[in-house]
Amino acid sequence: MRSRSNRASLILGVAGALLLAGCAAPPPKPSVTPEPAEREPAMAEEARRALALDRPLEAAALFETAAEQTQSPLRDRYLVRAAGIYARGGDVATAQRLIEDVDATVLTGEHRHRLTLIRARIELGEDKPEAAWQRLEEQPDNLPESLARDWRDAQASALYSLGRQIEAARIRIGLAQSMAPGAARERQFRLIWEGLSRLSPARLAAVMPSGSATLDGWLVLATRFRENRIDAPALRQAVAQWRQRYPDHPANRFAGQILADHLERLRPPEEIALMLPLSGRLAGVGQAIMHGFMAAYFQDTAPRPRVRVFDVGESGKDVVSAYRDAVEAGMDLVVGPLTKQSLEMLSVWDTFPVPVLALNTVGGEGIPRDRFFQFGLAPEDDARAAAGLMAAQGHEAAVALVPNSEWGDRVAGAFRASLEARGGRVLEQAYYQPQASDFGAPLTRLFNLDASRARYGTLRRVLSAEIEFEPRRRQDMDAVFFAAYPQQARLIRPQIRFHHGIGLPVYATSHAYSGSPQPNDDQDMDGLRIVDIPWLMAGTPALDAALSLNAMQALWPQESKRLPRLVAMGIDAYRLAPVVDVLRQYPGDGMASATGVIHVAGDGVIHRLLPAGAFRDGRLVPLALDGEPFGMPRP
């Protein structure tokens, strides 16, 4: 680096030369030649050529090398260029490392703006879109074209992360219009689509007309996809009609590409391995699921897959051997296994060559999620739905009664978390022994009746007189939740009334109901509000008549009466097979089915939203709010 004295000498030398320019005698040659300005190294030019050839990582490495060969301020500019490439590619850690070594005080104009853009991209990578938008909202004037384009691209990314997808799409449409056909333009199309295709049809419709014919075309295309996302023939027709309506739309060719990609994900499996315990103590459970699965299979009007059944029960194969056989046989999908132990055994696989639609859920690390879906009748889904129903009916302060067991803890935890997420709270929680028939002690504690009796005793002693006394329950609760199976639920509900719970709304999970009408046994549960699968809810049809509860009871009366929810689960397992991957792409969308409205989360875990019912004259009937059947919101 030139010293300040060298620069001062150079300035004085130039000034002296100018002063003497008019003299006849030539100036004497200076004894020290001034240091020439620092030149850009060849690496910098090579980096720019690499960028022009769309080789960004090579360009970033060359800019880093150029920085090593130069001094400030060139060095800082090259570090900024390299960091910008890494940040745009998503490697925010490397970008952050590079800019930490930049002296921002020597940067001016374009280079200072590049540094601002890098910092915004780093914040986006750290999931701080608000901070990024604050940096990006005001775009500086007179930016070079490429930098201005990058700035707008980052603005769109920030808006998308903030949930402002329509504004992001407007920016990207403008960017695409300024680009020649090629990879950069296709990238903008993909990002426009990624943003708009995640919006619900209702939100898309609310934006139209948008004031932009191009944006309207995108919005209509996204709407058609969302409306027909799991119906391949209808989707083909909808896209064909869109292309006829918008023949000159810039996304016309792109629509064909995304249709092909979507249809590939919708391609139904040609061969399915159904792994169930068909021998041993769980044989009846396996049979119930298989009956539902095969009933849906025979009602399928589309070309049906070949189904190979594997017994993974006590007399059958172990699940790992069965899975290996499915892989070697070229199966497209494995449905099952059923038990948590079997799912844990599958964790020996680092990856799943054949996707698995498991019929249970299992926690823990080490289970690959990419091709592993978990579909179970989890009690947590019921608990969340019960909390949602309670909150929707205006109740915020609950007490909870659950069995003293791992199952009870799971239900209680999910109920509490869901109610608190909706602004409510669980005031107190009590446990009962799983085989109990007398629930007086835990109910007395829950309702604070013991405290009321203690106050009565104190008053008697103080006053030394008999006092008319009626125990009073606590006044800060407005609802009761309990978890129990039918035998105990039929006892808990009347005991709540007996313990001064008359008038309190009482909620439970579906486990309180046997699944088949038994009005004589269930009449004591009148008024109890539960959530359950729509397949069992009279007046809440989820499927056509051929797969209704009545139809299944005619075919398999024993399983359909004893294990109706598992028969429904088998129906849904078949219906999920061709669409489960697509549903994971749209976790906000649900598929109405026998076990509820099914949502597939990003981690492959399948959640169910359940309708509500109440017991009346010993029968479960749909519960309506404002005259409409109550469908659960997302948990």
3D structure, described in words:
- The chain has 635 residues and is α/β, with parallel strands linked by helices.
- It folds into three domains: 42-266, Serine Threonine Protein Phosphatase 5, Tetratricopeptide repeat (Alpha Horseshoe), CATH 1.25.40.650; 271-374, Response regulator (Rossmann fold, 3-Layer(aba) Sandwich), CATH 3.40.50; 379-542 and 603-629, Rossmann fold (3-Layer(aba) Sandwich), CATH 3.40.50.
- Helix content is 50%, strand content 11%.
- The strands form four sheets. A seven-stranded mixed sheet has the order 7-6-8-9-10-14-15, with helices on both faces.
- α12 (213-227) packs antiparallel against α13 (232-245), α13 runs antiparallel to α14 and α18 (379-392) runs parallel beside α19 (406-421).
- It is globular and about 95 Å long.
- The two termini are 63 Å apart.
- Mean pLDDT is 86; it is low at 1-37.
